[in-house]
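REVIEWER CHECKLIST
Item 1: Sequence provided? yes
Item 2: Single chain? yes
Item 3: Sequence as submitted:
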Amino acid sequence: MGHYEDAFYEIYEDVNQKGLKTQFDAQLNKMRYQDKHRNKSAKELWEYAHNKVTSSLTLKDNLD
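Item 4: Structure as written out by the authors:
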């Protein structure tokens, strides 16, 4: 189970470092009510939300 803890820690640190905590929490909350995410593990949910908010940050940076 150690690799799960590492993944959570890395995602948590990256999100806080980039100032995306609010967007990350909002994405997790949104996913809570979507059927397609119902059977995902907590790690999978965190990874998906992390990818979603960091990719939107990258897209925003490319537009500027």
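Item 5: Key structural point noted by reviewer: The chain has a mean pLDDT of 90.
Item 6: Recommendation: ____
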